[in-house]
Each structure stands twice: as structure tokens, then as C-alpha cells.
Specification:
Blueprint: H1 2-34, H2 39-51, H3 53-64, H4 75-84, H5 99-112, E1 116-125, H6 128-141, E2 145-150, H7 157-171, E3 175-181, H8 190-198, E4 202-206, H9 214-217, E5 226-229, E6 233-237, H10 243-247, E7 253-255, E8 258-262, H11 266-281, E9 300-307, H12 315-326, E10 330-334, E11 338-339, H13 342-353, E12 357-363, H14 369-376, H15 379-385, E13 388-392, E14 395-397, E15 401-404, E16 408-412, E17 416-417, H16 418-423, E18 426-432, H17 434-448, E19 451-454, H18 456-460, H19 464-474
Parallel strand pairs: 2-3, 3-4, 7-14, 10-12, 11-17, 12-13
Antiparallel strand pairs: 1-8, 1-9, 2-5, 5-6, 6-8, 9-18, 10-15, 13-19, 15-16, 16-18
């Protein structure tokens, strides 16, 4: 009798747990559907929840929640920043830019209040050695302030060199502020940053991940890599502070693209940093000292556009779509990961089918096998539309750049994947200048000499097992 009662209780517990579990799964699916996000992304989450329910619940709890309705900075704070920027909305009516470029500039302003800064000088770096030699020289010249923000700031040889310079400048009385991404620097010991703090440097992690807020923050990372020195010189691009960006990896070089800006557009970088600093510290850097008036240094017009999971629009994604849609002659793209949204994939196909010369360069070997397999699943439809695909062979291609029609080019932190468009905080410089576009075009063509071109006949005949794995991983690409 007692054994029967125990069995009944066990049966009741199992049934109750099953019912609770089933209700949890269904409720989560209802939440996913009710959020009215991209159908492809919603379907990906539903597939994960149905076929991998336990894993799916955990993944959705940590990675699936939306925060786009929140703000990083109040409207009042944003107005304070803009008041100190010495450039208003640029009148493009007298400009020599094409009508398409002028329209694209207006889009950037309406989406992001991204001002167009004329009169800049730009230096492009394609190796970490070039970039970090120049960065260290400029840091040593700082007399007022240094604002530095990186997704990864490693405590390796290069990281210690940069840290020691920052400590030296702080001791000289220079204001030094550092933002690092908490997930990007998970492996970095606390002592590395505490030594900076002890020297008088203000250091803040972006979205520090800890319990109980782990689920709310782990999926939303600050992927930006920018430096502002005295409000006159800035750096932006794809390179983090880590030895591999300087020395390469065991299987080849680390090919990346970064740039130095001298001129008024440094104010755009400072505005981006100020918003992130306010978000992490609640201190608004709106004083005029951080936004000095800078005389023109060159002939390049630049917009600094930011995007992230907070806010109404996916600013960089939409501006990319506009730039690609404007193309008449060619589109050359370098990206380490290619997991395009449906809209991006279609507009690239449309351009190629309209006989625009569309070229896509990816790494032959990646630092992420999962992302590479997902990327490979998108290559066949690109090839069928006439997109030329190249695999870079000397090492890992981490560059994130686009050049279009000898007029427009962009360099920044944004990959062509769901994560950059939907989850990460990103920043890109959008540049309008023929000479710079030609330089960027030549960089692409030089890299192309070290590539293997992928043909449709070769690609569709690769092993069936590879194609199946790629197709399965592709189902998860919106949530990777």
C-alpha cells in the first residue's frame, strides 16, 4: 500500500514536471512569435526550442531576448553632446557627390543623427604592425585626453605595451578613459585593469556579465574598436589589442583593416565614445574640451555611424543596403563571416544579376569553424546570381570593408552577419571620396592575388557530408 502511494506520488511529480516543462516551451514560443521580429530569426528559435528543448530554453534565456526599445542615453544627454559638436547638418547641394551618395548621407543622418564631416585625412592600415606602431606614437603625443575602446584588450605583450603607455600618460596628467567589453575580455585577469585604475585611469567594462543579470547581458556585446586622442586624431577599424593582430596566428598572417582619421570627423568618434561612456558610467562627457574645433586636414567626407540592439533602427545594416542598392559598376566586400540577412542576400543577388561586378572575399580558414560552415551555406546562391567569391589563403582575413563605384567606402567593426546587425554595438566610418575609394579598391585587388576563386561547378560538387553539415548549421545562423 505504501509502495503504491509512493509510486502514485512519483507519477504525479513526473506528470507535473512534464506539464510545467511543456507549458514553458509553448510559452517561450508564443513570446518569440509575439515579438514580431524577423520571421527567419523567429523560425530559427522555434526550431531550436522544439528539437532541442532543454538547450533551447537555456539559449533563449541567455541569448534570445530583445532590448531594442531601450536607450543608451537620454534625449537630453544626446542634445548636450550635439550642442558641443561644431558641425551642423552638412548641406550637400553644393557638393560634387553623386545624387545617390547625397541620398545615402541623408539616410545616415535621419537614422543616426550622423553628421557628414568634410575635410578629413585618412591613413589605411592593412597590417597590425603598421597600425599599432602609429597608435603608440599618437598615444605618446597626447596632452589632454585619451579615450580608448576595444572589444578585446588582452594582457599579452601588445596589451602590456599599450597599457604601460596609458599609465605613463595618466601619470603625466592626461585624462585617460578605457572601455573594454566584459565578454571579449573574459580571459583577462582583473589585475591587468586594476593596475590601470591604480594609476589614475578610469576603466569601465561594457555590460559587465554577472548573476543575476547574466541572461540580460551576455548576448549584447560592444564590438567597437576606437581611439580618440585630444579630439584631433582618431582610430577605427577591425583590429583589437591582442598579439595575434600584430604577429598573426600559427597557420598564417592576420589580415585586417584599420584606419586613422585626422580632422573634423574625430568628433563623430568622440560622440560614439561619449554615449558608451555615459551608458557604462552615467557620466556625460559633454564639455567642449572633448569636442575641439578641428581645421580641415584633407579632402575626405566622413560620416561615423553607430548601431546596436538598443534603439528603433538597425542603422549600419540599413545604410549598407542603401549603398549596395545604389551601385552601378562594382561592389567589393571583405568580411571574415558571411551570414547575411535575407534582405542583404537578395540585394547582393539583384546587383549581380543586374551585371554589377559584385565580389565577396572570405577567409579560406577561419578562427570559428561553426561560423565558417554557416557562411559556406550561403555561397551557392551567391554564385548562382553571378557574385564572384574569393577565399583568402595566406592566413585569416578579418577585414571588414566595402568599396563601391569609385566613390563610397566603409571601414569599421561590422561583419556581414546577424550578430553584427542585430546584437552587437558596432561603429563604421562611411567615406565619400574618389581617391580613397580607388585606394580601397586597389587593396582589394592586391588581396585578390592571394585568393582562390570559387566556381559554382566546383562548389556544388564538394562532399555531401560537408553540404549537410553546413545546411544544418545554417538553421542556427540567425542566433549564432
Amino acid at each position: 500500500m505504501i509502495l503504491a502511494s509512493i509510486q502514485d506520488i512519483n507519477d504525479w511529480l513526473y506528470t507535473s514536471l512534464y506539464v510545467i516543462y511543456f507549458i514553458t516551451i509553448i510559452s517561450t514560443i508564443i513570446v518569440v512569435i509575439s515579438e514580431n521580429r524577423n520571421p527567419v530569426k523567429s523560425i530559427a528559435w522555434i526550431v531550436v526550442l522544439l528539437f532541442l528543448p532543454i538547450v533551447g530554453i537555456v539559449f533563449y534565456f541567455f541569448f534570445g531576448q530583445e532590448y531594442r526599445r531601450q536607450r543608451m542615453i537620454s534625449r537630453k544627454g544626446k542634445r548636450k553632446l550635439l550642442r558641443n559638436i561644431s558641425y551642423g547638418e552638412f548641406d550637400t547641394s553644393e557638393s560634387q557627390l553623386s545624387d545617390s551618395a547625397k541620398q545615402q548621407i541623408k539616410l545616415g543622418f535621419n537614422l543616426n543623427q550622423a553628421l557628414l564631416y568634410p575635410g578629413n585625412k585618412v591613413t589605411i592600415y592593412t597590417t597590425g604592425k603598421e597600425k599599432f606602431i602609429d597608435l603608440k606614437k599618437e598615444l605618446l603625443k597626447a596632452s589632454l585626453f585619451i579615450h580608448l575602446q576595444y572589444y578585446i584588450f588582452n594582457d599579452d605583450v601588445l596589451g602590456h605595451e599599450i597599457r604601460d603607455i596609458l599609465i605613463e600618460k595618466a601619470k603625466e596628467g592626461v585624462e585617460v578613459r578605457v572601455i573594454y567589453d566584459d565578454v571579449g575580455c573574459w580571459r583577462v585577469k582583473n589585475k591587468f585593469f586594476s593596475e590601470m585604475i591604480d594609476a589614475g585611469i578610469e576603466v569601465n567594462p561594457f555590460f559587465e556579465v554577472n548573476f543575476p543579470q547574466l541572461a540580460n547581458k551576455i548576448n549584447y556585446r560592444n564590438h567597437r574598436k576606437i581611439v580618440i586622442i585630444d579630439g584631433k586624431v582618431g582610430f577605427i577599424g577591425g583590429m583589437n589589442i591582442a598579439d595575434r593582430y600584430y604577429n598573426g596566428v600559427s597557420w598564417g598572417i592576420w589580415r585586417d583593416t584599420h584606419m586613422r582619421i585626422e580632422g573634423p570627423a574625430v568628433q563623430g568618434l568622440q560622440s560614439s565614445f561619449a554615449v558608451d561612456w555615459c551608458f557604462t558610467s552615467r557620466e556625460l562627457l559633454s564639455e567642449s574640451i572633448y569636442f575641439p574645433s578641428v581645421a580641415p586636414q584633407g579632402k575626405i567626407d566622413i560620416q561615423i555611424i553607430t548601431s546596436g540592439p538598443i534603439g528603433e533602427w538597425k542603422e549600419i545594416s540599413l545604410t549598407f543596403l542603401k549603398a549596395i542598392g545604389n551601385a552601378k559598376q562594382y561592389i567589393y566586400i571583405q568580411t571574415p563571416y558571411f551570414l547575411p540577412t535575407e534582405s542583404l542576400m537578395k540585394i547582393l543577388q539583384v546587383a549581380a544579376l543586374a551585371k554589377v561586378d559584385v565580389r565577396l572575399m572570405l577567409p579560406e580558414k577561419s578562427d570559428s569553424p561553426v561560423l565558417q560552415r554557416a557562411s559556406h551555406s550561403y555561397i551557392t546562391p551567391m554564385l548562382k546570381a553571378g557574385v564572384k567569391v574569393y577565399f583568402y589563403q595566406p592566413g585569416f582575413l578579418h577585414a571588414k570593408s566595402i568599396v563601391i563605384d569609385d566613390e563610397f567606402s566603409t571601414i569599421g567593426s561590422t561583419n556581414l552577419d546577424f550578430r553584427s546587425f542585430d546584437h552587437n554595438f558596432e561603429v563604421n566610418a562611411f567615406m565619400y571620396n574618389k581617391e580613397l575609394a580607388l585606394d580601397m579598391k586597389n587593396i582589394f585587388l592586391n588581396d585578390q592575388k592571394n585568393c582562390r576563386r570559387i566556381t559554382l561547378k566546383h562548389w556544388i560538387n564538394r562532399p555531401l557530408q560537408k553540404r549537410i553539415v553546413e545546411s544544418v548549421v545554417r538553421l542556427l545562423s540567425p542566433v549564432l
